[in-house]
């Protein structure tokens, strides 16, 4: 396996770990007091839609050759933004 392929594979594993973290945050947010409030429900719905897009992106990345993907890079900033919004929502709900 080449270095590019190893880097791409590592990044895919990293994205999968991020997705697991996002899922854990969704679980936490759904159990937090006030999770049923209309504003919170809307925000969670928006974030779940974004999560779906991330899953689609991850599947596309997996379908590409590792070498091609390694040269293109990845959508990590989007993953960070979704996770950050979820973390802030959980913090707000737990207060």
Name the beta content range.
Answer: under 5%
Rg from Cα: 16 Å
Question: What characteristic shape results from the CA principal axes?
Answer: elongated
Which class do the helix and strand fractions yield? mainly alpha
Low-confidence stretches: none
Count of individual helical segments: 4
Describe the model:
This protein has 95 residues and is mainly α. Helices cover 85% and strands 0% of the residues. The chain contains 4 helices and no strands. It has helices at 3-31, 38-63, 66-72, 76-94. It is elongated and about 50 Å long. The N and C termini lie far apart (48 Å). The mean pLDDT is 82.
Write a brief structural summary:
Helices cover 85% and strands 0% of the residues. The chain has helices at 3-31, 38-63, 66-72, 76-94. The chain is elongated.
Give me some keywords for this one.
elongated; mainly alpha; 95 residues
Please render the helix and strand layout as text.
Layout: H1 3-31, H2 38-63, H3 66-72, H4 76-94
Helix pairs in contact: 1-2, 1-3, 1-4, 2-4
